[in-house]
Amino acid sequence: MSYSAPTVYGLLPTADSEILATSHDPKINDLYGESRDLAVVVAHGFSGSMTRPALRRVSAGLRKYAGVQVMDLRGHGRSTGFCTFGDREVFDVDAAVGAARRLGYQRVATIGWSMGGAAVIRQAAMVKSGTLCHGHRLRHPPDAVVSVSATSRWFVRDTRPMRRIHWFAEHATGRMVARGVLRVRIDSGAFVPIPASPLDLIGSIAPTPLLIVHGCRDRYFTLDHPRALAAAAGEQARLWIEPEFGHAEAGLNPGLLDRIGAEIVSLTAQTRPSGPAVAPGTAVPLARAVPPDPEARVG
């Protein structure tokens, strides 16, 4: 039987003044929560949240390899703000990487799924290049990046699921349906101005290790997207095209998450820590050791 320290739930501020609901789980078999070698920051896809079974399975699976820092991205779950489809979500990823550093982790990898995959690519590239995002500078570089089922560019409408998501985003009725059915609050002014796409930025991530994962059964984004990202990223990027994999967290096939977890360990073992860690035990801001009410709403 595996034992580990308990989950710690908390609230985390971002550089642009949103408040994120978060959870931190130490690596499995870390009974006292003292292992601070490697953490993985998980950024979910559109309609995801910490209460969704698919994201819970991802978190549980990655705990075999590292401590896991998960959050509700803005506009989702108990976090404040509105969903911007990977634009301002870079602030959420940046804040979570910083939180993991403050917990004392020597190495921090990011993994994003679909929308979250675009966010982790953009965050790593912007922090590496020093590019401002809506007037703010990102401050917390990851030691490795994993992007799963991500788009390479914006305004993709060549699949039926993506046309549905554009209807959610572009019409008042769609945003109302997304809020009521999917519990996603969409920013009516998202992509004003149009932000740099993952394809525009991904070349700046080097030499940080990068893994791009995409499924042949993905109904949202065709295989042109991961291939374009890998080509633009350069030689440090690894591309996995998975025949039995669908889309994002919900489409995982058996064994793939374990392979990704092992690859994260391998990628980060080859790097020097990108940022200073602090003494273990430093709390994430406003952390609390009781789980949040999944029905509560903020913002």
In brief:
It holds the Pfam family Abhydrolase_6. The chain is α/β, with parallel strands linked by helices and 299 residues long.
Secondary structure blueprint with pairings:
Blueprint: E1 8-13, E2 19-25, E3 38-43, H1 53-62, E4 67-71, H2 89-102, E5 107-113, H3 115-129, E6 132-133, E7 136-137, E8 144-148, H4 160-170, H5 172-182, H6 198-201, E9 210-215, H7 224-233, E10 237-242, H8 256-269
Parallel strand pairs: 3-4, 3-5, 5-8, 8-9, 9-10
Antiparallel strand pairs: 1-2, 2-4, 6-7
Low-confidence stretches: 279-299
- Mean pLDDT, as a whole number? 90
Q: What is the H level of CATH, i.e. the homologous superfamily?
A: Alpha/Beta hydrolase fold, catalytic domain
Shape: globular
Report the total helices.
8
CATH architecture: 3-Layer(aba) Sandwich
| CATH structural fold name | Rossmann fold
Organism: Frankia canadensis
Pfam families: Abhydrolase_6
InterPro entries: AB_hydrolase_1, AB_hydrolase_fold
Region (Disordered): 274-299
Structure description:
By secondary structure, the chain is an alpha/beta fold. The chain has one domain (8-269): Rossmann fold. It is 30% helix and 17% strand. The protein contains 8 helices and 10 strands. The protein has an 8-stranded mixed sheet with strand order 1-2-4-3-5-8-9-10, with helices on both faces. It has a two-stranded antiparallel sheet with strand order 6-7. A hairpin with a 2-residue loop joins strand 6 (132-133) and strand 7 (136-137). Helix 2 crosses helix 3 (115-129) and helix 4 packs across helix 5 (172-182). The relative contact order is 0.19. The model is unreliable at 279-299 (pLDDT under 50). It comes from Frankia canadensis. It holds the Pfam family Abhydrolase_6.
